[in-house]
Design brief:
The chain has 247 residues and is α/β, with parallel strands linked by helices. The chain has helices at residues 6-18, 97-113, 132-142, 189-192, 194-197, 204-213; strands spanning 26-37, 40-49, 56-61, 83-88, 125-130, 164-168, 227-232, 241-246. It folds into 2 domains: 6-172 and 215-246, Alpha/Beta hydrolase fold, catalytic domain (Rossmann fold), CATH 3.40.50.1820; 180-214, no CATH class. The chain is globular.
């Protein structure tokens, strides 16, 4: 899979704000179902520019691992040619974080499976989000699931790997939230967002295991095709740390 440069990420995030004269007409396709299970249909809205540039932005609507359709917006990116998929996921505590990650992997496969239909290059799929949405974006970057070429559902025959991620203030390590080992001292989401993780963290052993498995930092290694970099967004103020990487 072709590896894009970090300039792709910067362009995706700021092109709309910096080039208003090139604004395009945008078509919105609402409530497109990307997964169905447990009696729930999970949806995304697609914002199609009049002249797509071939790149896709997948925006995850999530705060505290809660998601709803009121948070849908296109980020302004379609005005500059970026086909934008705004994804709503199942909300905790009904759905636990590990299940949410799996559903979002399905969302990426859905986008890639339908890339041609929406004028997208399947090797130019970036993902973004803030806070919990940033965490989920990073999980997609570092934990692509395996492809099943014999899957009965054609969508499941596609990769969930993303080609780029750019996110704001994402949780990256649940075990070492503010300092090493402080999750054992009652600090961080493993302690104040217990329902989001589910019963797996009821025991001390389960808490450590689940905390590690859902921490993006756990899955970063030297051989990985990920090149992280920290930027400061000039318009975002004191919380404007942007974690960007190409994979």
């Amino acid at each position: 899979m072709k590896i894009p440069s970090l300039s792709f990420l910067t362009a995706v995030l700021f092109a709309a704000a910096n080039s208003p004269s090139s604004a395009q007409n945008v078509e919105r396709i609402s409530d497109l179902i990307y997964a169905k299970h447990d009696g729930v249909a999970l949806t995304m809205d697609v914002f199609k520019p009049e002249k797509p540039n071939g790149a896709a932005v997948v925006k995850i609507v999530s705060g505290g691992w809660n998601s709803n359709h009121k948070g849908i917006s296109d980020g302004g990116w379609p005005r500059s040619g970026y086909t934008t998929f705004v994804v709503v996921h199942g909300t905790q505590p009904r759905f636990h974080i590990d299940e949410i990650v799996a559903d979002l992997q399905r969302a990426i496969r859905f986008v890639r499976a339908n890339a041609e239909k929406y004028g997208v290059n399947p090797n130019k799929i970036g993902v973004t989000g803030s806070s919990a949405g940033g965490h989920l974006s990073l999980m997609l970057a570092v934990k692509a699931d395996t492809i099943d070429p014999n899957a009965s559902d054609p969508v499941d025959r596609f990769s969930s790997e993303v080609n780029a991620v750019a996110c704001f203030y994402p949780p990256t390590d649940f075990i070492n939230w503010a300092k090493e080992g402080d999750s054992n001292e009652g600090v961080g989401p493993l302690n104040n967002r217990v329902p989001a993780f589910g019963p797996k963290i009821d025991s001390a052993e389960g808490k450590q295991k689940t905390g590690r498995e859902l921490s993006p930092m756990t899955w970063v290694h030297k051989q990985q095709r990920i090149r992280p970099a920290n930027y400061t967004c000039p318009k975002a103020g004191s919380r404007g740390t942007l974690l960007a990487c190409a994979v």
